[in-house]
LysR family transcriptional regulator
Amino acid sequence: MLHLSRLRTLHELARLGTVGAVARSLSYSPSAVSQQLAQLEKETGTSLTEQVGRRLVLTDAGRVLAEHAAVLLEGVERAESDLAATRPALSGVLRVASFQSVMLSLIPPALTVLSAEHPDLQIEVHQREVEPAYEGLLAHEFDLVLGEEYPGLDEPHRPGVQREPLLEDPLLLAVPSSGPWCDPEGIEDLADASWTADPETVMPGVWVRNHLRGLGVEPRVRFETIDLLLQAHLVRSGHAVAIIPGLVAREHLGSARLLELAGAPRRRVHTAVRSGRRDHPATRALRTALAEAAASLDSAVPPKLS
Amino acid sequence: MLHLSRLRTLHELARLGTVGAVARSLSYSPSAVSQQLAQLEKETGTSLTEQVGRRLVLTDAGRVLAEHAAVLLEGVERAESDLAATRPALSGVLRVASFQSVMLSLIPPALTVLSAEHPDLQIEVHQREVEPAYEGLLAHEFDLVLGEEYPGLDEPHRPGVQREPLLEDPLLLAVPSSGPWCDPEGIEDLADASWTADPETVMPGVWVRNHLRGLGVEPRVRFETIDLLLQAHLVRSGHAVAIIPGLVAREHLGSARLLELAGAPRRRVHTAVRSGRRDHPATRALRTALAEAAASLDSAVPPKLS
DNA sequence: ACCGACCATTCAGCAACGCTTCACGATATC
DNA sequence: GATATCGTGAAGCGTTGCTGAATGGTCGGT
């Protein structure tokens, strides 16, 4: 009888590509992974892997079985979800990964509602950027992750992941309340300003630079940080200008001024789960709580930048 | 991680109803089955079974999980089938259950063709009536079974089973070549004849009696046997009349006369596999070989009875 | 109403499975 | 060519999961 845990190992190998990575992901020793694959080959009577250089790649048969493994593992999670739905109350632990701005604004009110409705459901929230969050989702490290997409920079669709839109968050120009950059007539007035922005290694950092270039401004990024609270502080204290998402701008910019950029760009924020957990009651509960939190946000629109 | 073999046990419990029957079906001791179920309840944190009287019945949660188990197990067989399809040649053992008349007429030529095309594929054929054949199919005792349906007596659809029609086999009146019943003008001339027929405990026996009664004849069954070769012999030697399927009548009735009954009743013969093995190359190969054997049968139509 | 048959569970014991650790050969990188 | 990385194999050992016997409970038959 084909073993699910071994199929899981094969599936992870298909996803990660090396025995070592699989071992790390599943908390096994590489030897154990190797033995599981050997066992799988013995059981099926088919050679599933092939050594190419010092890497192990799947044969055609291996890919076929790995594809089935993915379907089966999704089925297992669906079974567990349906089983959880038969229980009267939600319980257990739900592990969530979120990037900073949602963790700052949406998660706390959602958790307040949730813990009132489902006192036995424990929720752990881990701060992760989108990429590692997805990686952790597929590795079963997290059960639900928050993701974001910047205009024109769509996230690739990942097999086995089910995504649901949560909100559209405006990307606003934030300038100090006083000083040389406090009242730009157009974006070009900020060509010489000090900018603070995410590093170019992450999606928001890429987008900010691309977008400003598209408007004819090459930003001079003096303060490069992924921390939006830090960016907000730099703007508030008059040291920089920045493009700040509405979720952060709403509460953390103090007296700094907000202006809506031309074209009113928005990032799209979504939740994602492994497909098999789409109908899990805990997934549903958290998603609706987050949606409610998003709906009750102040949606005042700042004045337009010329 | 949910264990497939335990899910299989739960599925068998849903199908068979008692721990003992499950144990027999899976070649375990009842104790092992009980422990597996306990382990499953522990893993899922849900009570799946409930003791009612001296029986064990599934709770709602248990039924939910058993339903998923059925789907998952079907998926496993689909995986194995697709895996077998990646291999260049067919090999292994295919276990078949067939009732007598098909085993007599179609199986041998089909196997001749098959062993020529797939020398490494071993086929075992076991003679079983339709009911036990299906039971064996679900218990993984057989991989493919032959079934039959008599007019008006449809087999119930069984979950997890995929059926494909094979041929329609005429049900013919067989009378001795000489003696008082050798030339009936109508079926009513045989009201006083000695009949040989299947016992009323099996589908063919039920149908024969019903059908004759519908024609106004209450058959006096003197020789009750499930063995169609024996029935054929009794007709051939002048001791009885019978309704014999074409597959047997074609070769085993010697000089006895065949007459087509009013309405030209036919039994429908089909093959059945567990749904997951529908696309297994061995399934496909045997089904096409059987279909070819059926197609090359002599299809001469005997004269009509008045 | 009692006895026997049947059903499920529990416990102890034991075999087999499946992991880790360690050592090794092979391969890519600097 | 030294070094790190990768996958595999053998030994050892803890855990899992089976069998078999004993127990408690339930139903049907006499």
User: Anything to note?
Assistant: Chain A has three domains: 4-84, 92-164+267-295, 169-266. The mean pLDDT of chain A is 95. Residues 169-266 of chain A form a domain with the D-Maltodextrin-Binding Protein; domain 2 fold (CATH 3.40.190.10).
